[in-house]
Amino acid sequence: MTRRVLVLAVGVLVLLAGCTGGAGPGDSQATTEMTEATETTATATGTPTATSTPEPTPTAEWSSPTPPNSPTQVDEEQVQMGRISNVEFVNTVEGANGEGYSNFDLSVQANTTMEDVDPEHGTVDGEPYFVVLIDGKLVERTKLVLEQEDGQYNITVRGGALTNFDAGTLEVTVLLMDEDTQNDDVFGRWTGEIEYNPR
């Protein structure tokens, strides 16, 4: 009788040890899934994770834009119409010691309508775009712009273009152009000055 009780007790202990002991054959996968679920939850709830800081991308070097098809022709009658009614220096960046500007963009107000301007065909609309000259040097050229009687156009002047100039007063010229297959025409002109002072 005592022997039977001992065997039964040992069997119960073995069963209990199996329930509370090490992982069985199927427990490894369950443990892995539990760990992955915990990590996913931690990420979803905003727990910070280590990430590498990307290296800053180097600034693309400035290169002179494609010049108009030349020799360009000035349509004096169109220029005299005052097609470029206003130009403002915008997005200005103060130069060293707060004097002058180290960079700027341009906001141009202009009549860019070019209906029936092609002299050869007479019924073909023009293809307007702008160029920017600084001290006579081409620094920017826009893509073709929308034709509008009173349009507002923003022109970005890339900082790399300005590094070609010394500090001092720069003469800035904006030309409204009509793109042609051979000679592009000048339809509008504006000239102003800005004090350039690199950082």
Brief characterization of the structure:
This protein has about 200 residues and is of the alpha+beta class. The protein has helices spanning about 1-20, 25-45, 75-80, 160; strands spanning about 75, 85-95, 100-110, 130-135, 135-140, 150-155, 170-180, 185-195.
Any key phrases for this structure?
3-stranded antiparallel β-sheet, alpha+beta, 5-stranded mixed β-sheet, 23% helix, Immunoglobulin-like, 32% strand, 199 residues
Architecture overview:
This protein is α+β, with helices and mostly antiparallel strands and 199 residues long. It has a domain at 84-196: Immunoglobulin-like (Sandwich). It contains four helices and eight strands; from the N terminus they run ααβαβββββαββ. Strands 1-8-7-4-5 form a five-stranded mixed beta sheet. Strands 2-3-6 form a three-stranded antiparallel beta sheet, with no helix packed on it. The longest helix has 19 residues, at 2-20. Residues 19-60 have low confidence and may be disordered. Residues 20-77 are annotated as: Disordered. Residues 30-64 have a biased composition (Low complexity).
The residue fraction in helices comes out at 10-25%
CATH topology of the domain at 84-196: Immunoglobulin-like
- Element order: H for helix, E for strand: HHEHEEEEEHEE
Give the count of helical stretches.
4
Radius of gyration: 37 Å
Unreliable residue runs: 19-60
Biased composition (Low complexity): 30-64
Region (Disordered): 20-77
